[in-house]
Amino acid sequence: MPKLLETSLGVINVGLAQFAQTVTAAGGAATQVDWQPPALGDRAAGMALARLTGDARIEQANARAFAAFLGAVPVLRGIGAAGDTLPGMGERMILHAGPPIEWPRMCGPMQGAIVGAILYEGWANDADEARALAASGELAFEPCHHHAAVGPMAGAISPSMPVWIVEDAARGARAFSNINEGLGKALRFGAYGPEVLQRLKWIECSLAPALGTALGLLGGLELKPLVAQALIMGDEVHNRNAAASALLLRRLAPALARARLPHEELAQALEFMAGNEHFFLNISMALCKLALDAAHGVAGSSMVSAMSRNGVEFGIRVSGLGDRWFNAPAAAIDGLYFAGYGANDAARDLGDSSITETAGFGGFSMAAAPGIVKFVGGTPEDATANSLRMRHITLGESDSFQLPALDFRGAPCGIDLRLVVDASIEPVINTGIAHREAGIGQIGAGLTRAPLACFIQALCALDDELNGR
Amino acid sequence: MPKLLETSLGVINVGLAQFAQTVTAAGGAATQVDWQPPALGDRAAGMALARLTGDARIEQANARAFAAFLGAVPVLRGIGAAGDTLPGMGERMILHAGPPIEWPRMCGPMQGAIVGAILYEGWANDADEARALAASGELAFEPCHHHAAVGPMAGAISPSMPVWIVEDAARGARAFSNINEGLGKALRFGAYGPEVLQRLKWIECSLAPALGTALGLLGGLELKPLVAQALIMGDEVHNRNAAASALLLRRLAPALARARLPHEELAQALEFMAGNEHFFLNISMALCKLALDAAHGVAGSSMVSAMSRNGVEFGIRVSGLGDRWFNAPAAAIDGLYFAGYGANDAARDLGDSSITETAGFGGFSMAAAPGIVKFVGGTPEDATANSLRMRHITLGESDSFQLPALDFRGAPCGIDLRLVVDASIEPVINTGIAHREAGIGQIGAGLTRAPLACFIQALCALDDELNGR
Fold first, then answer.
1. Counting CB atoms within 10 angstroms of each CB, which of A262, B48, B115, B233 has the fewest?
2. What pTM was estimated for this model as a whole?
3. Cβ contacts (< 8 Å) between A263 and chain B: which residues?
4. Domain A73-284 is of which CATH architecture?
5. What is the pLDDT of residues A405-450, one digit of tens each?
6. Least Cα separation, residue B245 to chain A (angstroms)
7. Global ipTM
8. Contact B380 A270 (CB under 8 A)
9. Residues of A409-441 as b/e, b for ≥16 C-beta within 10 angstroms?
10. Does 3.90.1700.10 match the CATH number of domain B41-68+298-467?
């Protein structure tokens, strides 16, 4: 009797699961290997990938870019007015999230935020006037990313708005973000009612100067130790910033007291920060932007240096590909909605906050944040699985930020677009959900993914660049 | 051929592992069942256990005690001076941790703390005078537990010291603890140098009044939601209180600002709280004491209502057994030491803080605190295993406090001394380690266990009580 038939036979099936199912349906044993062709079978991308995989120039460039990313030492330095502080910010300019987009194509919440910023600046008397001005071409709309800044959701930043200044103690470079307004009706979700504008004015005139004084008294605040501790405390510093916000308040409160504000004004500043568990989000975003900017501009590098969404398009930038954006349609979000809202009310994926995932936080560090998974409709196992999956598409692990649930291994970070295309694994993103119409606000939160198409385009561009087709 | 021999044989071995090892050494298959005789083979305890197991009177009493424990609604109500506030507190009385103990038998750090308390009260001019006074019999030394109070480590509370007042909104009952002094040289670890006494005076004269005013302005602070959030943020609210302390500061800071202290005094108060990640510990202990007091005094109940150590003896109290203590020698601690110290320098197990384990926190909630396990020399798996193991000796799970790493199941709580004796599983305790001599302070932290002997004694006493031998 042939030896083969003395033991029971098994089948290993690679790829399409149906073949394995046929075997098991007939009573046999089949082990299914989860595999699919690179780039979902896109032939041109597959050929480019073959040329770029193992290319020593890319490996060296990525090593440099990744080291620069890890080497950033972000310090919260102070507060400035956007108009005076952001490089290249114009007098009649409003910044927005994501890749470039013109007023008519903007999604509802972004148009709402632009209307709100115009009213806040006093450039119009009501929403209709503001819309007319926005449509007139008299104002410049540019991405935050083009001005070393990032803003959550709509990301509207106008010249009078105060911005956080995060400085790289290693290089002196700076990155910026606006100040978080809290949940519910907020400009970043497209709301522009009187209470929204009033709060923004209070932030500008009362909170921001006090924070600036406090940071001056502290001589700045090193951010890596604070974020490292927050990850041990259940934050992924994108959709959950409860610990980081509390730790920030803990550091700032004594200095705020020494800023000698009137007691009631001080109490209101502390209360505002204490009541907003997302207060740290914008700082988290700015420190990610800073570290990724350090990695940007290394010729030949396939490391992704930005992922961002304007509500219509999802765009990425790549270290070795200069200031080009590689865009694809923004995805819908798989999430949980506040009572009375559903998927039909939702705007598409929006905001610069996916800079946190680009730096290894958010969805990449989901394993750190079991507290968040219920909110976005998952289990602690899903959270850990997301972080493990992201290891397949990243250059390495953080040397500063550990994930307790993964036995204190470093957060996966440094997305290599070759790995994304090869495994067809799209980066996972935790995000808030805005109403699709202007003026309403947040209606939920959930999970989404960066579209593979962005990475395929960028891969082909890198192939052009390096292999001169 | 007999059917038995057609398949391969396996052995199931219950109890002593050596029998199974013999089988596997000879090439056979043996499955080892981890079992040992109840009460480690103590015949009298085993007989008592047999009588008490399944006793309907106990089941009903435990159900009542456990429901009362879960039903407590602890509110941080304010601050008072121990002498005016603690029930039965005498003018020349100093309270200490653990079961009753006389001055000559006290361990080094407890004697040091008593010396410090005498100097703090101005009852003596130096340490020698203080020792002479302590030995003279003119002062009364009583357990904190006899005055509705708990204190970490030495637990020294003298009449002028401010105490937290935690009130049960469900029953109006109160429990108390002193205010945490921070790490390093501290009275609770037996240090009594000038900087220790100075800090205690500052706490009494500056910090405590401000905290009292702030809590008054807030109208009290509900503690269960705060602790529930802290467990999601990596605290087990015994050896790790980083999140709870930050959340408390977040709540208190605006009210402290409204207390209209001079700015520098306010800044110092905020700085002190911000710089002490154990600030919440004493509040945690008081809320545990309050909930366990609610469960205490149910005739027939085998639920443990206190576990505490005076550095010489470990003592427990049981709901159905009145005010009696059941003591055994305090254990040494398996821990990690600060540089320059080792096991030979360590005092034995000390402090009322094991009230947190009695209520289901600390070692019982280790699964919540992966960040702490390195500090006490373990892995995240050890942490989870500890929490799972404690399920075997507890009456149920908390309905308020969830452990994310156990899929958000409730913390195991309500120790049933029958279950402890039956499985010979000793409750696990996370703890700090004091130097064995007076005047030095903390030298490490680690894990210890409540001695089985306490539970065996209490079990026999309950058997006497119920079965009238």
1. A262
2. 0.92
3. 257-258, 260
4. Alpha-Beta Complex (3.90)
5. 898 999 999 999 999 999 999 999 998 888 888 877 788 888 899 9
6. 9
7. 0.90
8. no
9. bbbbbbbbbbbbbbbbbbbbbbbbbbbbebbbb
10. yes
